[in-house]
Amino acid sequence: MTHTKAVKISGYFDLGGETLTLIGGPCSIENEDMCFEVAEKVNSVCRKLGINYVFKGSFDKANRSSLNAKRAVGMEKGLEILQKVKDKLNIPVTTDVHESYQCADVCAVVDIIQVPAYLCRQTDLLVAAAKTNKTVSVKKGQFMAPQNMDNVIEKILSTGNDKCILIERGSSFGYNKLVVDITGLPILRGFGYPVFIDATHSVQEPGGKGTFTRGNREFAPLIMYAALAAGVDGIFAEIHPDPDNAISDVGSQLKLLEIESILHKAMLFNDVAWDKKGAC
Asked: What is the pTM of this model?
């Protein structure tokens, strides 16, 4: 399998290539203790399995089904927690932004700025994120054809920043349903930048319960393994100690207790894709 451009996370490692990278953590930053519980466990598992790890947590869930849905701890407190995780565990961190003005504060802490799928065509947001000179990860919109993501990349490159990764998170398939088109993954990789599979958002049923989104977490590992076999460069997954009682994505976040077995199997598929001897 061909390599994509190596995107360097300064002081840590490169994204892309044979070494699998996981971007993972709770959907919402609910509190400091929970973030450390997830980060410490997942970091330990990743070190054991030889996986690069980036901790992810959202300080604000702005794209919610209901006006009354909880939205995490806010930017100031969220960035404070991300900084503590980064400093204590010596791992890179990422979070998502929803407004252009947020990029200046967020880039002072995170190593990757994430642009949400619903906002992947927002020129001002993409440009503001790229101008920080941080790596920019962009979720492919549920409404976007993979071949049209070249326009997104062009907006990022226009700033002189070429540190970009693309994340597949499923496509709208009628009402309240997403599907993952595996054939879109090599199309995305064809742009030359690392491609990740968002295994947990891909099994959502947006607005499926009216005031909140349903999910089918039992299918998330299946999506993950299929994408790895197709040759993606990394995994994006939301992980929680008690997903059923999380403040968001209760049906799709992976259970922390199951993450080691899921990632162990993921490594087998990654090794097969890269044709490593003795993989299975």
From this structure: 0.94
